[in-house]
């Protein structure tokens, strides 16, 4: 009877060892998953920060582009207002010459 009880205890001890080994393996896997999760969260956070910075930079570029467009539009409008056609320019030159001749004729 004692021998049977010893064998039962041995069997229970072996079973407990196997369960313990299995739980140790599961614990190791969980710890690995936790580390991986923390790394992924850190990478996600870094990517999010970079994305926000990139978006801010895009907004700055848009603002600069709009300013450039406005400046170019103003320059274009000013150039249109100041521009002379060749005929108008020639008329102005001819008028200047005729005025100069009139003054010389007097």
Automatic annotation (TrEMBL):
| Organism superkingdom | Eukaryota
Q: Does the keyword Coiled coil apply?
A: yes
Q: What are the coiled-coil residue ranges?
A: 44-71
Q: Does the keyword Coiled coil apply?
A: yes
UniProt keyword annotations, A-Z: Coiled coil
Recorded protein name is Testis expressed 9
**The organism of origin for this protein:** Cyclopterus lumpus (Lumpsucker)
């Amino acid at each position: 009877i004692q021998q049977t009880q010893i064998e039962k205890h041995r069997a229970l001890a072996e079973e407990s060892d196997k369960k313990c080994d299995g739980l140790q393996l599961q614990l190791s896997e969980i710890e690995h998953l936790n580390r991986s999760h923390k790394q992924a969260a850190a990478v996600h956070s870094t990517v999010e920060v970079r994305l926000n910075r990139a978006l801010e930079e895009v907004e700055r570029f848009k603002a600069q582009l709009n300013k450039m467009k406005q400046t170019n539009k103003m320059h274009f409008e000013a150039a249109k207002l100041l521009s002379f056609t060749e005929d108008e320019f020639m008329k102005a030159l001819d008028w200047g010459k005729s005025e100069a001749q009139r003054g010389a004729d007097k």
